[in-house]
Backbone:
């Protein structure tokens, strides 16, 4: 028995935000409410900083729910690792010298941190695209107009200004 073929299905909520007519044909898909998930306790200090920065932005985009907690935790953990590896590369060389048995320079080798940064960058990009966090992903998302809210105090102040 093999795995499913083709790209992963786009969630109906994302299709609706994009304005796709395919969203109307779908039924029975779970639709969790937009809500900021709690920050996992297992996140490192740097990952928690990423969490505090990214979650409010996702709430504003209306693309996050409590069920996204683990995916966001992975994103923040990967981001913290990417940042540490990137900082290491900022203070050290991206290549190092290999020498022969007599100590003469033979060639240069890419430092393993370069590969780590590149792999983490690719993983981060995939998660960023899932949440609509890249310039190419954002145009595909249509955020509904916010519902007008009624504030009794504001209404009263407007009414008083109209009387004067």
Residues:
């Amino acid at each position: 028995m093999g795995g499913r073929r083709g790209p992963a299905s786009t969630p109906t909520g994302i299709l609706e935000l994009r304005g796709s007519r395919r969203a109307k044909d779908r039924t029975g898909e779970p639709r969790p409410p937009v809500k900021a998930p709690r920050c996992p306790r297992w996140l490192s200090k740097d990952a928690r900083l990423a969490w505090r920065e990214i979650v409010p932005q996702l709430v504003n985009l209306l693309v996050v729910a409590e069920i996204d907690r683990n995916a966001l935790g992975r994103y923040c953990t990967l981001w913290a690792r990417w940042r540490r590896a990137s900082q290491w590369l900022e203070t050290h060389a991206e290549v190092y010298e290999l020498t022969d048995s007599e100590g003469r320079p033979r060639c240069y080798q890419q430092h393993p941190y370069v590969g780590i940064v590149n792999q983490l960058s690719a993983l981060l990009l995939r998660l960023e695209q899932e949440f609509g966090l890249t310039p190419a992903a954002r145009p595909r998302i249509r955020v509904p107009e916010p519902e007008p809210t009624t504030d009794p105090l504001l209404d009263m102040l407007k009414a008083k200004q109209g009387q004067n």
In short: The first strand starts at residue 95 and ends at 99. The mean pLDDT is 83. Residues 12-144 form one domain.
